[in-house]
Amino acid sequence: MADDAVATAEAIASRLKADLKRFGRQVDEVKAAGEEDKPELYEAAKASEKRLKKVIASFQREIGELPEDKRPKFSVKATKFEEQFKELRRALKFEAAATERGVLLDRGGRGGAGGESKGDRTTDSVLREAGTVASGTTDRLQRTLQVVNQTQEIGTATAAKMVEQTEQIGRVTTKVKKIDEDLRRADKLISRFMRRMYTDKVILAFIFLITVAIAGIIIYASINPDQDTFNVPEDATLDSDKLKRDAQKVSDSVSGRRLLRGDGAAAPFGLEGGFAVRG
User: Fold this and answer.
1) 30, part of any domain
2) CA pseudo-torsion sign 252, 254, 257, 261
3) Are 21 and 40 in contact, with CB atoms under 8 Å apart?
4) How many degrees, rounded to 5, is the angle at CA 266 between CA 263 and CA 272?
5) pLDDT value for 238
């Protein structure tokens, strides 16, 4: 869609350029024509002027439908076309006014003296040249002013675009910083998760070992259900002689205290002479 609009604008611009050249030639022909041919050429030039006016309006409408990035290029072309068109219109209008003045002067010259007619024509020629110079100067000044205005508009648009891009860069920088913070936070969370995983693995290993030990005990007990003793190493057994001596000392001490109290009760545990110790 955008390409079609650009192609249409290019076609109208080419047509407008050719029509302006043709209109310029017609204006030159009006200037160079004699009194007899000038009215016909003037009418033809006026017809071209009306047609050009419509084409310029169509070109302006077409520019309005273009994408924003394509408009400046065609806007500059439209401004140049309008300047050329105004200059040619002004020249044609001036030529028509000069022709009317010449006709009036010629009529007045026929009614007066020959010397006066010749002097009026000389004055009219000077006025015409002065008007042409003044018109050209005014046109140049207007074109210069338009160029300055266009440059100012382009500078303003460029500054606005730069401000917009600066703001966009600022937003991008903020997003990048936020992403960096999120990545750092994610790294910390991953490190914590890994430590927890290692801790869980150690706990699971201990649980596995305890489970295996319990299972081993259960299996051993199921294999040997009648065993009620365990083989104890010799280093862990008590010395029976020493145990007898210690028991005898305790028994003698208890019997002595009872005798001092006058208690003739039997020895503890119903045994006389001490504890009964199995060898």
Assistant:
1) yes
2) negative
3) no
4) 130
5) 53
Distance CA 223, CA 240 (A): 33
Tell me: do 165 and 247 sit in the same domain: no
Three-state secondary structure of the chain: CHHHHHHHHHHHHHHHHHHHHHHHHHHHHHHHCCCCCHHHHHHHHHHHHHHHHHHHHHHHHHHHCCCCCCHHHHHHHHHHHHHHHHHHHHHHHHHHHHHHHHHHHHHHHHHCCHHHHHHHHHHHHHHHHHHHHHHHHHHHHHHHHHHHHHHHHHHHHHHHHHHHHHHHHHHHHHHHHHHHHHHHHHHHHHHHHHHHHHHHHHHHHHHHHHHHHHHHHHHHHHHCCCCCCCCCCHHHCCCHHHHHHHHHHHHHHHHHHHHHHCCCCCCHHHCCCCCCCCC
Average of per-residue pLDDT across 133-140: 76
Last residue of a domain, one of 138, 169, 200: 169
Domain that holds residue 23: 2-169
Q: How far apart are CA 93 and CA 209, in angstroms?
A: 113
Q: What digits encode the pLDDT tens for the residues 211-224?
A: 999 988 888 878 87
pLDDT at 126 over 80: no
Q: How many CB atoms lie within 10 A of CB 89?
A: 17
- Give pLDDT tens digits for 65-86: 888 888 888 888 888 888 888 8
Query: Where among 169, 189, 221 does a domain terminate?
Result: 169
* Distance, first Cα to last Cα, the chain: 118
The mean pLDDT value for 225-251 works out to 64
The label of the residue with tokens 């300047």 reads 83
18-22, 94-98, 142-146: range with lowest mean pLDDT: 94-98
Q: How far apart are CA 196 and CA 274, in angstroms?
A: 64
